[in-house]
Write a structure and sequence with these properties.
This protein has helices at 5-9, 19-30, 39-48, 56-59, 77-85, 89-101, 108-114, 118-136, 140-161, 163-168, 241-246, 248-256, 263-270, 274-286, 305-311, and strands spanning 11-13, 174-177, 180-183, 198-203, 211-213, 220-225, 261-262, 290-295, 298-303. It is α/β, with parallel strands linked by helices. The two termini are 37 Å apart. Residues 230-323 form the HTH arsR-type domain.
């Protein structure tokens, strides 16, 4: 992957997990037998895979390299489907041709998709919604909590060690030689970003080599395996052990600080006084769970790796953090 200076300045971390990307990768993992971490999940999911979602299996291969128009970056199902349905006819045809050439069957349905047949696209829309409801919605809180912890951790690596360490540390098999990121892969491919930038997206389902998507508009996307895959994340508990340890309000402060916030932000979001928010951040800072930095009149706070390690295995459901599924319409 070839970076220009502009590309290096436009490397970003995705702000939220992308439900359509996770759906595509979950559909790929269902078809793979090479990862013992997902073996029990795969066996269970094969039995419960929604019938209405089965057309997705015609589009998504076990490699995860399905149609790019099917997995745009989005915050929810509705805006993601809007992007899917507004894909240009040329992009859809070229993408389906690529996927079918790589081993997906050329069926009557995929032919109709390429022809922009209304009924075929209605089937696709129903498949996506059924797949989300059956595969993702029940575990979306766990996906989101893991994503936020990972994103905060990567941001700290970027701030502390720089972009080289952050990029090459995403997963094994990555090397940065000058302005070229080399990815160990059986595929011989050169990607020239040409100023479009790159968005980094961890996946709770994917465990293979990083996947690179270059879209007609916007930045390229590099999908890499999250440090902790979904199947190794603990089931959510009704009891919050962090709240039991720190107290409910202080645990809520810590949970909010997976993203950088000011004392004023904390006071407003938790509906507490600014002095109370300051006392909580002082205690967390003394425990080395957060770090603080003054900029002018504002003091910015964020979790340390120790703080992230404390909250990452749990799903905070207190007043400071509510992890909801994206709107499904």
């Amino acid at each position: 992957m070839h970076f220009t200076l502009e590309d290096l300045l436009r490397v970003t971390l995705a702000p939220t997990p992308a439900p359509l990307t996770e759906l595509v990768l979950a559909t790929a993992v269902v078809q793979r037998q090479d990862n013992p971490v997902f073996s029990r999940w795969r066996q269970r999911t094969l039995q419960t895979f929604p019938r209405a979602a089965r057309p997705l299996l015609e589009l998504v291969p076990p490699t995860g390299k399905g149609p790019l128009f099917l997995d745009p970056l989005s915050r929810g199902i509705d805006d993601g489907l809007d992007q899917v349905l507004s894909s240009s006819a040329d992009f859809v045809r070229a993408d389906l041709k690529r996927v079918c050439a790589a081993g997906r069957p050329l069926t009557l349905w995929t032919t109709h998709l390429a022809q922009r047949d209304h009924d075929a696209w209605q089937v696709l829309q129903g498949s996506v919604r059924a797949g989300y409801a059956g595969l993702l919605a029940p575990v979306w809180d766990r996906i989101t909590s893991g994503f936020e912890a990972e994103r905060a951790w990567r941001a700290q690596i970027l701030a502390r060690d720089g972009i080289r360490t952050m990029l090459t540390g995403l997963t094994h098999g990555l090397r940065l030689s000058g302005s070229v990121l080399e990815i160990d892969s059986s595929e011989d491919r050169d990607v020239h970003l040409a100023g479009r930038g790159l968005t980094l997206l961890p996946s709770a389902f994917w465990s293979g080599r990083p996947l690179v998507g270059v879209y007609p508009h916007g930045p390229a996307v590099l999908v890499y395996p999250a440090v902790t895959p979904l199947t190794l994340r603990e089931e959510p508990s009704t009891a919050d052990p962090v709240a039991a340890l720190l107290g409910r309000t202080r645990a809520a402060v810590l949970a909010l600080l997976t993203r950088q916030r000011t004392t004023t932000d904390l006071a407003r979001e938790l509906d507490i006084s600014k002095s109370s928010a300051s006392e909580h951040t002082k205690a967390l800072r003394q425990a080395r769970l957060i770090v603080s930095q003054r900029e002018g009149k504002a003091v910015w706070h964020t979790c340390t790796p120790l703080g992230l390690g404390l909250i990452a295995p749990t799903t905070a459901t207190g007043q400071g953090r509510q992890l909801d599924a994206p709107p499904a319409g």
